[in-house]
Amino acid sequence: MRSLIFFFVFLSASFVNSLFAQKEATVWYFGCNGGLDFISGSPVLRTDGLISTNEGTAVMSDRTTGGLLFYTDGVTVWDRNHNVMPNGSGLLGGPSSTQAALILPDPGNTQKYYIFTADAGLYANPPSQGIRYNVVDMSLNGGFGNITAVKNQLLYQPASEKLTAVKHCNGKDFWIITHQFNNTNNFSVYLLTATGVNATPVVSSVGSVHVADAAGQNTLGYMKSSPDGNRLAVIVNPSSFTASQVNLDIFDFNRSTGIISNPLIISRPRSDYGLSFSPDNSKLYVSSYVGSVNQFNLASGVASTIAASKFLLSSGGQFYGMQLAYDGKLYIARNIYGLQCDRYLAVVNSPNLLGAAAGFVAQGFDLTSNHVWYGLPNFMDNYFAEPPVPIDVSSNTAICIGDNITLTASGTTSAGYSWAPSSGLNSTIGSSVSANPIVTTTYSVNEIDASGCATNNSENIIVEVKDTCKIICGELFIPNVFSPNGDDNNDIFFVQGNCFKTFSLKIFNRWGEKVFSAEGGPASGGEIPGWNGIFRGELLNTGVFAFELSGTFSSGKELLRKGNISLIR
């Protein structure tokens, strides 16, 4: 018998294909004609790049294929054939800017891209060109791209050499994160949407002051977001080369509002330069150009505890820019011989792991004849987010109409869960909700992140509702009509009852031919299977059929019922 409501759980497998299958960061160009290609999953040397610069670069690959589209050092833009793109020279980034450029796709046009640039502050010539943007149209120049009339569009000046981005909570738009420079602690965060760059920034005055100085020392050093976009870290160098201290600032970033908050400020010896979060957002790596790579455990969320967790991975050599890659590893620019290019990249093989288990290798990748200097390509780190941990949801259950069931979600490190639709639920937020649907309902549970954003990590739960389940032990309900037409309403003939010890159900057509039978005892669970109107592989036509039901209840009471049922098409 089917007297209960069955609660089915379906895994949605909704790992955000739009996020975790992206290939924009496949190709890298940097330093002294250095290049890598991660299209196979592991790095392969590329020696065809024309970049020769000491610090920041940016590269854009095709989202679907991973093929090269174009690349820049913040001053010149080369197309995929390594020709200077029309109107692609004279950008106002800087070869001595830590994060000279950053490329983002246009949220409203798959053929267009934005190149944001940051100059080297007082190092630049002319100085203090600030944060600017340019638009690339890949539909022009025979598909090789062209810088449009939107070129060197000023957002503000002066600015530090820090430039990164985070995907908006809506999954389409982008936050461009920058920092003002002139004795201020102001972040300026700009929203890029399908209508363009909103010229009015979200300003957050928080963290260390970036002090102006004649040498421009205070502008350098990386700024990076965590791959999930909910944290931000910044190297704040001192206002003098002779100062002994640098600040490592760690913040929360709200992907919905663009607000930066909750500073954790850690004092460090002078000379920090590069940094990166681990793919799982739990560790922070910091490099120094006087000879160290350090790991910090962020689990506590307390500045003093994070500082005390420092693990020295390397104490020899000079280390600079850091960048995660699609192979899950962290690559570090190194420059053992001062201002000369170096043939090796340092590599952290397992950056999610604590301490020595992270697997630091000083000469981790050999660039052979094409070398690295201080910088690596500047990518939005959302590209390297790990697929989410699947949500564990309630196991199958059964209820009767009018009863409540508890739906649960767990197993992730999220800030919470949201449920939809709201019909039949006592709440749409929480790891546990009570459901009392009056019709069959598919509930979707989504993970909510630290910014309060619903992620694409979700599971579906179907609660099927039947209205004939409260049958007293020893009683029966035998319908006299059913309509197997595929509309999920009364499609199956069920004898509804419970407490069967043995049973035998037979159904005959008008010629006395048996078209269905079912027998069972305790091993069957006491539930009589239903008939879907099919005989010998075909759905029967409208007609009247005879049934015979016999057996015993668990109380010992004998059962014998005969009658007719109508099949309606």
Helix/strand layout:
Elements: E1 5-10, H1 17-20, E2 27-30, E3 34-37, E4 44-45, E5 58-61, E6 68-72, E7 77-79, E8 101-105, E9 112-118, E10 131-137, E11 146-147, E12 153-156, E13 159-167, E14 174-180, E15 184-193, E16 196-197, E17 202-210, E18 223-225, E19 231-236, E20 245-253, E21 260-269, E22 272-277, E23 283-288, E24 292-297, H2 303-308, E25 311-314, E26 319-324, E27 330-334, E28 344-348, E29 360-366, E30 392-393, E31 398-399, E32 405-410, E33 416-420, E34 432-435, E35 441-448, E36 454-463, E37 476-477, E38 481-482, E39 496-497, E40 500-508, E41 514-520, E42 534-535, E43 538-539, E44 543-553, E45 558-567
Parallel strand pairs: 38-45
Antiparallel strand pairs: 1-31, 1-36, 2-3, 3-4, 5-6, 6-7, 8-9, 9-10, 10-11, 10-12, 13-14, 14-15, 15-16, 15-17, 18-19, 19-20, 20-21, 22-23, 23-24, 24-25, 26-27, 27-28, 28-29, 30-32, 32-34, 33-35, 35-36, 37-39, 40-41, 40-44, 42-43, 44-45
Ends apart, CA distance between termini = 23 Å
Provide the residue-averaged pLDDT: 87
Briefly, what CATH class of the largest domain? Mainly Beta
In the CATH hierarchy, what is the superfamily of the largest domain?
Answer: YVTN repeat-like/Quinoprotein amine dehydrogenase
Q: Which spans of ≥5 residues are poorly predicted at pLDDT below 50?
A: 1-20
Helix content: under 10%
